[in-house]
Design brief:
The protein is α+β, with helices and mostly antiparallel strands. The protein has a domain of 36 residues. The chain has nine helices and five strands. A three-stranded antiparallel β-sheet has the order 1-5-2. It has a two-stranded antiparallel ribbon with strand order 3-4. The longest helix is centred in the first third of the chain and has 20 residues.
Length: 224
């Protein structure tokens, strides 16, 4: 083997100019092929290639849900007054410095959206009511019911409730609009969740769900 390198040494020594051109040619050729190399930041490429795995990778790319981060806040406290919404508020505050990585956070209903829904039902209330609802309205118009409702409204207005709740009381002191809103609740596809303090929680009130949509896709390993 050493004889080959000795021969190569003497060959280069005798043909220095030709050797330089040959070396430059090899370098140019290497640079050309190096420029043709493309790096793909796709974690799905580690999946073995066959018909079934190709279908799996295709589904993972097309499903937006696969890119979401699900945050479940669970109530393990024995305190009856424990508020999941307070924990969720603290969590959202803590992730504010990470906004450059977060596209959006779903799971909390905006106050404006709630107000718009309330106004829509309030302005079209007769369309949502049935015969039993009118009987309920008649009951609400009784003196004792009005007195009780006014008392409840006063407690809500002086307590640290949300501004949206106070606006509801101003627009509808007797709470008649909520009879129509109950009809909207009946249209819910899932009975396992409810809205509590503007957050989506499970029916038993023990779990709160947040869905984080990252700005970078799950297979973008370069930026994640």
């Amino acid at each position: 083997m050493h004889r080959f390198f000795i021969f190569l040494y003497y060959l280069i020594s005798k043909n220095k100019l030709l050797s330089v051109f040959f070396a430059v040619g090899i370098a140019v050729l290497c640079l050309f092929f190096a420029s043709r190399i493309n790096f793909e930041e796709d974690i799905n490429q580690i999946i073995p290639k066959n018909e079934k795995s190709d279908l799996t990778a295709k589904v993972l790319k097309q499903l937006n849900f696969s890119d979401k981060i699900i945050v479940i806040i669970e109530n393990r406290s024995k305190e009856e007054n424990f508020q999941l919404s307070e924990t969720a508020d603290s969590f959202l505050h803590e992730i504010e410095p990470l906004q450059k990585y977060i596209g959006s956070v779903q799971g909390k209903v905006n106050d404006n959206e709630i107000s718009e829904t309330f106004d829509f039902v309030n302005q079209n209330l007769p369309l949502f009511l049935n015969e039993n609802d009118y009987k309920e309205i008649e009951r609400k118009l009784q003196k004792d019911s009005i007195a009780k409702q006014v008392e409840n409204n006063y407690v809500s207005l002086v307590s640290p409730t949300s501004l949206v709740t106070k606006e509801f009381i101003k627009k509808d002191p007797l709470g008649i609009t909520f009879l129509g809103i109950k009809k909207l609740n009946a249209l819910n596809i899932s009975k396992d969740f409810k809205l509590e303090d503007n957050y989506i929680v499970t029916k038993d009130g023990k779990n709160l769900l947040l869905f984080i949509d990252p700005k970078n896709k799950s297979n973008d390993t370069k930026n994640n």
